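TICKET: design request
STATUS: open
ATTACHED STRUCTURE:
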């Protein structure tokens, strides 16, 4: 009889202990909050996106906690494969995808800023769909073109940074000339040949049309 009472007490203690454990487990999910080790740009030019990212985190965390406490489902690492769990995990995946979308934009912006770009430049890249390599090439080309003055004709024997850049471009187009920045016969003839190949007026004179064709 005494052994039976002890057995019953042990069973009762187990039931109570298990119930308390379930309660503890229900309201104490480890590492419930979403965290990332990626470097994000929280000064991103579009602050609405930063707000959306933070809201997506809160939305995800709230959903994970709700499923854990209300349905005992850990949507991050589910143990069951019943229909309720599948639906919960699918919904979690969609919320996580939204969060990752905003996170990727903020991470990319951070990387671009480390390369020296401003918010305005990043906005330009995104709105035009231009990649960084093309953007940098465009900047360099525009700087070269800014040295050109249509009202000031380049004269024979003249030396300048613009002529040097023109020579570099001609060389990249297959012309074998000296890279020295001097506007002499071989450079003039190379420009003529380039103009002829590109259906431009052949005079060896550097004008806006020739410049655009060289740097297109």
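STATUS: resolved
RESOLUTION: sequence designed for all positions
ATTACHED SEQUENCE:
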């Amino acid at each position: 009889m005494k052994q039976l009472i002890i057995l019953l007490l042990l069973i009762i203690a187990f039931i109570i202990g298990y119930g308390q454990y379930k309660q503890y487990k229900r309201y104490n999910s480890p590492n419930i909050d979403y965290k990332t080790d990626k470097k994000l740009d929280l000064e991103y030019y579009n602050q609405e996106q930063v707000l959306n990212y933070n809201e997506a985190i809160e939305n995800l965390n709230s959903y994970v906690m709700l499923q854990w406490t209300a349905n005992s489902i850990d949507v991050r690492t589910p143990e069951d494969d019943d229909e309720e769990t599948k639906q919960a995990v699918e919904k979690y995946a969609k919320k996580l995808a939204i969060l990752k979308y905003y996170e990727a934009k903020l991470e990319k912006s951070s990387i671009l800023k480390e390369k020296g770009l401003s918010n305005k430049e990043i906005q330009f890249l995104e709105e035009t769909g231009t990649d960084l390599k093309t953007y940098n090439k465009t900047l360099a080309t525009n700087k070269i073109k800014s040295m050109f003055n249509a009202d000031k004709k380049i004269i024979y024997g003249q030396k300048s940074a613009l002529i040097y850049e023109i020579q570099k471009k001609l060389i990249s187009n297959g012309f074998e000339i000296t890279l020295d920045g001097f506007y002499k016969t071989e450079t003039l003839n190379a420009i003529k040949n380039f103009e002829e190949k590109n259906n431009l007026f052949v005079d060896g004179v550097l004008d806006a049309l020739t410049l655009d064709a060289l740097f297109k």
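CLOSING REMARK: The chain has two domains: 31-126, 131-214. The mean pLDDT is 87.
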